[in-house]
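Extended Data, panel c. Modelled sequence:
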Amino acid sequence: MSALVPVILSGGSGTRLWPLSRELYPKQLLPLVGKGTMLQETLARIDGVADVSAPIVVCNESHRFLVAEQLREPLHIKGSILLEPVGRNTAPAVAIAALAAIAANKGDAPVLLVLPADHVIRDLEAFRAAVAIGRAAAESGKLVTFGVVPRTPETGYGYIRRADGSGTSFPVEQFVEKPDLATAKQYVSSGKYYWNSGMFMFKADVFLKELQALAPQMHAACVQAMQTSKPDLDFIRLPVKEFGAIPSDSIDYAVMEKTKHAVVVPLDAGWSDVGSWSALHEAIPGDEFGNVQSGDVLTSDTHGCYLQSTSRLVAVVGLVDHVVVETKDAVLVAPKNRVQDVKLLVNELKKQNRYETSLHREVFRPWGSYDSIDNGERFQVKRLSVKPGASMSLQLHHHRAEHWIVVSGTARITRNEETFLLEENESTYIPLGAKHRIENPGKIQLEIIEVQSGSYLGEDDIVRFEDRYGREGEKG
């Protein structure tokens, strides 16, 4: 039996779950349903699959430290992380992962289990049983897709029509686009249609052979990109020029809809792609009034709502079937039947060059995070949180000076040629142009209040000289 390598696709931006999900901190990296993030829940889900190897995670280069941290804590997973410098959809992502898996297995082709990082699956036993069926089909040379047994006539999903037959897997007769409601009702009543889950299983060499036959230009470009990739810390960095030259296409359009070797394995396991606020509401059990509440929320005469607070009290009166989501810097209010239009708001924010599309007020870095708690003309106040043993880069700023006050923990400070410790309630000053660094030599979190002053306070006013995370030359 071939090795089984999970391939986790973690490249999406999740704009339909704005303002919680943002480009630099998307939904798959958030704990939306369980205690772990959606990426962590996906990785934990594979634990019970028999004879599984270390995973390959394909992610956006800008998410690399968040992904690496979530693999380490609390899962202690040592998988490969492939960094996409630009998005090229799912077909190139899977092809690159297939090439990497064959190389890691010294030329042998493992079976790949391709899973998006942002799905919810409630029935793990049913999921693992379907994977076992898919594995047997993949070993025989089939390209497997998992079709979700539809609960309702959804118009937001594509569908898969299976051919007639009996058994545990069926030949794929047709992939169909998202239908209107009347058509969706016909699909569900026929018993021959499944929701297209976006999960797949096949041998790496079989997929690459089909890709080469059906999309030769894409195959050649993926091979070229993989051949010029470079290891970087815990990552495999794909080159901007070569990867950017790959044609962008989904695995469905590029391969699965054209191949003659596709089979569908029915999956009835409480699946959801959590593609909108209404889908998230359905994925979480509600209270006696049908409300799902998270955070500091107070309600009166409110029914069928999704209500989330992250930083302050949210009080709701008389709402029915609405979504209210509060973050530190944005609030969304929408009827549940209009949540698909959240992406229109995100597009408008992008047109206005608003930072809220990509960043939260609290921004995460490999050393910890910073939260911009106040700002005005020529000043900005941040709360820095530095993890035990972590260190910022040695850097300087051309346009701002900084005051640091230690709130808790111990800081080791570098200022030009000086190195000294600061304890709680102690402070120091970093003049404009001085080389500086903060390290946390202790075993508890280091919290610092930073007051910046100067003519320009943007995050791109950073010149890095040394950085243990390989960010020399990067801005921000």
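The chain has eleven helices and 30 strands. This feature is highlighted in the accompanying rendering.
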